[in-house]
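Project standup — Tuesday

K.O.: blocked on the structure for the chain from last sprint. Re-posting the sequence here as requested.
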Amino acid sequence: MRRREFIAGLGLAAVGGLVATETQAATWYSLGRRKVNGLVDFDQINVGRGAGTFDKLRLEVTGNDLMIYDLDVRYGNGARDDIPVRLLIPQGGRTRDIDLRHSDRYIRHVRFTYGKFTNGRGATYVELFGRR
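H.V.: unblocked you, prediction finished:
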């Protein structure tokens, strides 16, 4: 009898662990999308107060490969994070999860400097995501 109770308890603990893991999973929100032009340039995605606060960011690229040099994150109170990225993102790829120092403040906008590698397949888009 004790063996059955022990095995049943292990099963319930495993199921409970799965449920807890799913509820603690990070939720990513799309904060904006931008069509990028030019070979070396910068663009900006406006976020604003209505989106809330975020502790991490990431960029996703579609269309062509894109070299992201750095991000300039501006917060509502004027503070900023200058984040060097220096990463070649392949078409369909994304950056690592980027930690923000001022995660208690809303993001006014994110400006990113990039270099575009065209492959003749049309436009390149960058989408910004934030995690709460």
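K.O.: great, moving the ticket to review. The mean pLDDT is 82. The longest helix spans residues 2-24.
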